[in-house]
Design goal:
The chain is built from 4 helices and 12 strands, in the order E-E-E-H-E-E-H-E-E-E-E-H-E-E-H-E. With 290 residues, the protein is of the alpha+beta class. It has one domain.
Length: 290
């Protein structure tokens, strides 16, 4: 979203012992949902197929089995469409999951496109989608009592560049007003009509390091990326009981994410150092379920 539209929380002194997060109620007004339901996800029934975020015409927003950490990342995209690094916060920030259904005032509703989907792209930083992200920020501040601030630090990053031999990405041939689509599972990412900034965000989640797009690719692309993840949990896993269905496991002899990027998409990750903007969580509380 545009920098001017990004409102982060400041703090004011309200008595020597007043909590710093009280300032969330005194910040510059932002658009807000009219109604919102937040319920803890049931880990015994959740399937391991990824987290869902859906913005629909009519001002509707749905998040399925998302952690507060993921909700913050979704609400606070930077100007390039990538998610900022998040630091601090309570121990449950990245583990407890919630399902949210929210509805906006009709004045802020997203107009439908010719196909019935939203008229603007999913990663648009201005317009109705930017307004929706501001509404999600308001929701997090009100219901999770979220307070945060920005810091910038120099750290190791990856730069996403075109590999020798050129890009193998297929530019989408569909009309530009169709909403991007993506599915995630362990060792597999399928995307349609997405910019490279979208891939950079997913690589950041997978690798635990900021990824800066230096590819120079400006279109929207359709691709499938398959790799063998390292042992252990990944950001695309969801907790599930012993009977929870799982997607097919990745090929144990398949390529690493680095090799898959080069062989399948014609892209490469280079290690570098650069400035990274961080969202530092000052306060958050579990919401009251309703």
């Amino acid at each position: 979203m545009a920098t001017a539209g990004l409102v982060l929380l400041g703090f004011v002194a309200v008595g020597a012992l007043a909590p710093r997060w009280i300032a969330f109620a005194q910040q510059e007004p932002r658009p807000a949902f009219d109604v919102a339901s937040i319920k803890p996800s049931d880990p015994a029934k959740a399937v391991r197929t990824g987290v869902g975020f859906l913005i629909q015409p009519g001002g509707r927003f749905t998040a399925t089995d998302a952690t507060l950490q993921q909700l913050i990342g979704f609400a606070y995209y930077d100007d390039a469409g990538a998610q900022r690094e998040i630091a601090g916060g309570p121990s449950w920030l990245g583990s407890e999951r919630y399902t949210i259904e929210a509805k906006a005032d009709s004045a802020l509703a997203i107009p439908p496109g010719p196909d019935g989907g939203p008229a603007a792209g999913f990663l648009a930083q201005t317009g109705p989608f930017g307004q929706t992200r501001l509404m999600i920020q308001s929701l997090l501040a009100e219901r999770f009592k979220l307070a945060l601030h920005r810091e910038t630090k120099e750290e190791q990053v990856y730069e996403l560049v075109v590999a020798k031999g050129g890009s193998k990405l297929k530019e989408t041939a569909e009309p530009g007003n169709l909403i991007p689509f993506s599915t995630f599972s362990r060792g597999r990412l399928v995307a349609m009509r997405v910019p490279i900034s979208f891939l950079a965000v997913q690589l950041k989640f997978l690798l635990g390091r900021s990824v800066i797009d230096k590819s120079g690719l400006t279109g929207k692309y359709d691709f499938e990326l398959k790799w063998t993840p390292d042992p252990g949990p990944t950001p695309y896993d969801r907790p599930g009981g012993p009977d929870a269905p799982n997607p097919p496991p990745p090929d144990p002899n398949g390529p690493s994410i680095f090799t898959a990027l080069q062989e399948q998409l014609g892209l490469r990750l280079e290690s570098a150092k650069g400035p990274v903007e961080i969202l530092v969580i000052d306060h958050a509380e579990r919401p009251d379920a309703n």
